[in-house]
C-alpha cells in the first residue's frame, strides 16, 4: 500500500549534465551539472542552467565548478546540494527523496568507495537507492535486448568519460573506460587556438567550435567558423576564422583512444558474442556521439557497424526509468 505514496526516480548524474526520469511522467529534468559558488565564502549562488549561463562571465568573487569529474563525485557536498536542488525542482520543496526510491547510474569500473558515496548521498534523503552501470542503462534505454543470450555493445562518449561495454544476459561481460570525453576535447581546442593564433577563448566558445566546426569523417565538406577571443599579446578582443581541418587534427588523438577501446573490447569478446556484435553493431550514445560524422568514422576504422542512438543524451536516464519498473516491487 505504501508504494502508492512513493515517488520513483531514475537519475543520470553525469559530469556535464544531470537528467531525471520520474515514473509516470518521463524525463522531468535535464540540466548542466554545474554550481556557481562565491570564492571567498563558498556560498552557492546558482545551480544548473543558471550557473551554466555564467561560465566565462563571472566576476572575480564567483566561480563555476563541475562537482563531478571523470564521471565520479569529486566534491561530495556540492554534488549533494546540486542533486537536492534538482529533485526539489521536480518534486516540490517540502521533502527531498523522503518517500522515494531512486535508481542512479554510475560509470563502470568505479571503486566501491566511489559507489558508496553515490548511494550515501541518495540514502541521506530517500528510502532506498540502487545503482546501475551506465552502459547497461544506456542499452536498456535504447531498447537493446540486454536480458537475452545475445551480445550488445555500447559506446558512451560523455563529457568527462568514455566507456565501451559488452553486455549479455543482463550483465556486463567486459568494459573499458577512458577518462576523456567532450570536456577534454574543449580543452584541446582552447590550447590549440592559444598556441596557433595567440588567442584566448572561453570554454563555451571551444564547445561551440566542437559542435559546429568538426567533421570526424573526412572528406566531408570543410566547415569554417568565426570565433572571438582575447589577443594574448595585445589584450584586445579579436576575431579569427577557424576551419574544420584544423580541429579534426586535434581530435585525432581522441579518436585513436576510442578506436583502441573498441578493439580491446572486441578482442575480449567470446567468439559467439563477437559474431553478434559484427551482425548487430555498436550502439553509440552520450553527448559526444553527436560529433559530426563520428559514427561513420568509427565504423570505417573498426570495421564494426556503428549505430547512433536516436536520442544519444537520453539513453541512460531512459534505462534507469525502465529499471524502476523492475525494482518497484
Ligand atoms: N552536437 C554535439 N556535438 C559534439 N559534442 C556534443 C554535442 N552535443 C553535446 N556534446 C558534448 O557532449 C558532452 C556531454 O555529454 P553527456 O551529457 O552525455 O555527458 P555526461 O553524461 O554529463 O558526462 P559523463 O558521462 O562523462 O559523466 C559535452 O562535452 C558536450 O559538449
Ligand atoms: Mg554520461
UniProtKB/TrEMBL annotation:
A cellular component annotation (GO) from this entry: cytoplasm
Predominant location: cytoplasm
One GO process term, biological-process aspect: cell morphogenesis
Residues binding ATP: 159-161, 207-210, 287-290
Keyword DNA damage: no
Keyword Nucleotide-binding in annotation: yes
Entry keywords, A to Z: ATP-binding, Cell shape, Cytoplasm, Nucleotide-binding
GO molecular function: ATP binding
Subcellular location: Cytoplasm
Signal peptide, first to last residue: none
Domain of life: Bacteria
Main function: Forms membrane-associated dynamic filaments that are essential for cell shape determination. Acts by regulating cell wall synthesis and cell elongation, and thus cell shape. A feedback loop between cell geometry and MreB localization may maintain elongated cell shape by targeting cell wall growth to regions of negative cell wall curvature.
Subunit-structure text: Forms polymers.
Family, similarity comment: Belongs to the FtsA/MreB family.
PANTHER family: CELL SHAPE-DETERMINING PROTEIN MREB
Protein name: Cell shape-determining protein MreB
Species per Swiss-Prot/TrEMBL record: Paenibacillus psychroresistens
Amino acid at each position: 500500500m505504501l508504494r502508492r505514496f512513493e515517488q520513483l526516480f531514475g537519475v543520470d548524474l553525469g559530469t556535464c549534465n544531470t537528467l531525471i526520469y520520474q515514473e509516470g511522467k518521463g524525463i522531468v529534468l535535464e540540466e548542466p551539472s554545474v554550481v556557481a559558488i562565491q570564492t571567498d565564502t563558498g556560498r552557492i549562488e546558482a545551480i544548473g542552467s543558471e550557473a551554466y549561463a555564467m561560465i566565462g562571465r563571472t566576476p572575480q568573487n564567483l566561480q563555476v565548478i563541475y562537482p563531478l569529474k571523470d564521471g565520479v563525485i569529486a566534491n561530495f557536498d556540492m554534488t549533494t546540494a546540486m542533486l537536492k536542488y534538482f529533485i526539489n525542482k521536480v518534486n516540490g520543496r517540502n521533502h527531498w527523496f523522503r518517500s522515494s526510491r531512486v535508481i542512479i547510474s554510475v560509470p563502470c569500473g568505479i571503486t566501491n568507495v566511489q559507489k558508496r558515496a553515490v548511494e550515501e548521498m541518495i540514502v541521506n534523503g530517500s528510502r532506498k537507492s540502487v545503482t546501475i552501470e551506465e552502459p547497461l542503462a544506456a542499452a536498456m534505454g535504447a531498447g537493446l535486448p540486454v536480458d537475452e543470450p545475445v551480445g550488445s555493445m555500447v559506446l558512451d562518449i560523455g563529457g568527462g568519460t568514455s566507456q565501451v561495454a559488452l553486455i549479455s544476459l543482463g550483465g556486463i561481460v567486459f568494459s573499458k573506460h577512458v577518462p576523456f570525453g567532450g570536456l577534454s576535447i574543449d580543452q584541446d581546442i582552447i590550447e590549440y587556438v592559444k598556441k596557433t593564433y595567440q588567442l584566448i577563448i572561453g570554454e563555451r566558445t571551444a564547445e561551440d567550435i566542437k559542435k559546429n566546426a568538426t567533421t570526424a569523417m573526412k572528406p566531408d565538406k570543410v566547415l569554417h567558423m568565426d570565433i572571438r577571443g582575447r589577443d594574448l599579446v595585445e589584450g584586445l578582443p579579436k576575431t579569427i576564422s577557424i576551419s574544420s581541418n584544423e580541429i579534426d587534427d586535434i581530435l585525432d588523438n581522441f579518436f585513436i583512444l576510442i578506436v583502441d577501446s573498441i578493439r580491446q573490447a572486441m578482442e575480449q569478446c567470446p567468439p559467439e558474442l563477437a559474431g553478434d556484435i559484427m551482425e548487430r553493431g555498436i550502439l553509440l550514445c552520450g553527448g559526444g556521439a553527436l560529433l559530426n560524422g563520428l559514427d561513420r568514422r568509427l565504423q570505417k576504422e573498426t570495421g564494426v557497424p556503428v549505430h547512433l542512438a536516436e536520442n544519444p543524451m537520453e539513453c541512460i536516464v531512459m534505462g534507469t526509468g525502465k529499471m524502476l519498473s523492475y525494482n518497484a516491487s
